[in-house]
UniProtKB/TrEMBL annotation:
The keyword NADP does not apply. The keyword Transport applies. Pfam families: SBP_bac_1. Its main location: periplasm. Keywords: Periplasm, Signal, Transport. Residues 1-24 form the signal peptide. It is found in: Periplasm. This is ABC transporter substrate-binding protein. Belongs to the bacterial solute-binding protein 1 family. It comes from Neorhizobium phenanthreniclasticum.
Length: 422
């Protein structure tokens, strides 16, 4: 198995001006968030940490350049490691840990009484090889349907009545006849990758999903997955969705795609439920302007737990480490976390978060998590970064090439599998 994490974004890391030697409680934070809802949410934590007398320098990299989190490792290699870094990718935490710069946080969460208040899915997602190394920020479902209620009414359709994907697509002609796009589609590898793993959960189901993505330490996915009907079904549904792309889809970011739904051009978008933050940033009201539903007939949902890590080891002073743990405490504080979720569009990571921060979409997320065998973890928590990147590139290639078939996709995935694992 090969790893590209250390190499991804190295040029970017070296291009960043060297960070001056830090003093006590003088911290750097790395993230790849950029839209209004993300920044507003992150600032809930940053402002609270600054209020304690700390100074924070932000290193922000666009999401597409951040990729699998490689620039974080590149900054470590360049001798300019960030004190706080936002990523859920287990490989990043392993790499930093193996360089003697990792920091566990599980014992601290136990001490402050946070651990029992994390849902089971959160407790699992923040572990790396059995150790809690991630600070959970918010819960997301990687594939939910968010739709414009006014367009639905104008087109004479009711998404809450869709029991299957067939029901959903049966209404497509009505929506188009009313003058609207049916499904919003964006144009980069991130969106293609997330759309596909959301469909692997919803359409193929949890068992096929795990065969396709699960990689234990030194292991590889189950190659019998390439013969699974569920894999073919997910690929074919991916094609059916991306075939609805309008003329502006190429290079369009996810939030710009969301804006086509918000502005009344498109009925809906199937993407991560961080879309809600974009709706709220545009002063739209849940239940009046927009609504959320699971993929019709969904078999399982893929779960992302936004997370951050903190630096340990020799480069970190005693005061810096104390400030880093302050950030951990701030992030999982029920009130702070509830406010973060309200801005970000996520669901709080604590079951004791203020009730007034839970809306109907949050309750839908929590109901999904409460069902047995109906949720799976984001691939970055359970898989191999090279395999994930290969899947992203394959599906984005498929999205842009109308001549590719399902058999072509499976053949390409098999080739990538052989290159990575054999």
């Amino acid at each position: 198995m090969r790893s590209k994490l250390a190499g991804i974004g190295l040029a970017l890391a070296l291009a960043i001006a060297p960070i001056a030697k830090t003093s006590a409680a003088d911290l750097t934070i790395f993230h790849s968030w950029s839209n209004e809802s993300e920044i507003k949410a992150l600032n809930v934590f940053v402002k609270a940490l600054k209020a304690k007398g700390n100074t924070i320098k932000e290193l922000a990299v666009p999401h597409e350049q951040s990729g699998a989190g490689g620039p974080i490792v590149s900054l470590v290699i360049a001798g300019t490691p960030p004190n706080i870094f936002l990523t859920g990718n287990a490989d990043v935490y392993r790499d930093i840990r193996d360089r003697g710069l990792g920091q566990t946080v599980g014992e601290y969460f136990d001490k402050i009484g946070a651990t029992p208040n994390f849902p089971a899915a959160v407790q699992e997602a923040i572990k790396v090889d059995g150790e809690v190394r991630k600070i959970p920020l918010g819960i997301h479902i990687d594939g939910m349907v968010y739709y414009n209620m006014k367009i639905a009414k104008a087109a004479g359709v009711d998404p809450t009545q869709w029991k299957s994907a067939d029901d959903m697509f049966a209404d497509m002609d009505k929506v188009k006849a009313a003058g609207y796009n049916f499904i919003g589609v964006g144009g980069n590898t991130f969106q293609a990758g997330y759309l596909f793993h959301a469909l692997m959960a919803a359409v193929a189901g949890p068992e096929v999903y795990k065969k396709f993505y699960n990689v234990s330490d030194g292991g590889k996915p189950d190659p019998s997955v390439f013969e699974e009907k569920g894999l073919r079904d997910a690929i074919e549904m991916f094609r059916k969705i991306t075939a609805q792309a309008d003329e502006g889809w190429t290079n369009r970011q996810w939030n710009e795609t969301t804006n086509t739904v918000i502005s009344g051009k498109t009925l809906m978008q199937f993407h991560g439920d961080w879309m809600k933050g974009q709706w709220k940033a545009n002063n739209k009201v849940l239940g009046e302007d927009f609504n959320c539903i699971n993929w019709p007939g969904t078999k399982a949902v893929a779960v992302t737990v936004d997370a951050m890590g903190i630096l340990g080891g020799a480069p970190v002073s005693k005061d810096q480490l104390a400030a880093e743990f302050d950030m951990a405490s701030i992030a999982v504080d029920p009130a702070n976390n509830g406010q973060f979720a309200a801005y970000k569009g996520s669901t709080p990571v604590r079951v004791d978060a203020p009730e007034d921060k839970l809306d109907a979409c949050n309750k839908l997320v929590l109901s999904n998590l409460a069902k047995d065998n109906s949720s799976v973890l984001n691939p970055f928590y359970i898989s191999d970064s090279d395999w994930i990147n290969s899947i992203w590139n394959t599906m984005f290639t498929f999205q842009g090439d109308r001549n590719m078939t399902t058999d072509d996709v499976i053949a390409m995935l098999k080739g990538e599998y052989e290159s990575i694992f054999n």
